Amino acid sequence: NLNGKFQFGTTNLNLAxxxxxxxxxxxxxNVIAIVPELRKNPNAALGSLAGSLFGGGNTGPTGDWRDDLxxxxxxxxxxxATIGKQRMDLQRAFIQSPAFQATAVGTVKLASxxxxxxxxxxxxxxxxxxxxxxxxxxxxxTPTNVAYVAxxxxxxxxxxVGEQKTEINKKAIVGTA
Length: 177
Prior knowledge:
This protein is an alpha+beta fold and 177 residues long.
């Protein structure tokens, strides 16, 4: 019987990447941090990504981008959604730091027990152009005034609110290699 809308916005957070406790935010950082390794050795990177997303292995930034990510605290978090007819439609979630941006649009099918609610949310991640240039990841023809470059859609959040699962898009990983 829940119906409504919500909007949430913050600016000037200065939220240090190395101190993140949110599984969602850590997933975004882990995906970004693994990209240089994906370009060099996709098989090893796939194992590292899976390990960091599923609770094992390194959970912090690695490789050449470590300093750039750790020096770029999250400064903006915004979200808006509508709720009704036993679902929540995430219309826009947005996270930004000087090094990256992440967006998400998706649905949560609400269950009587909230933790059993089904989620389906693909993550779209963009890195600052200077980071993309370090690994030759700026597509040909990209205008020089574009500040952030889109990464392939490597992961989607699925499962339930109580037990989120991260689905890895292996085709995107192979394409990166």
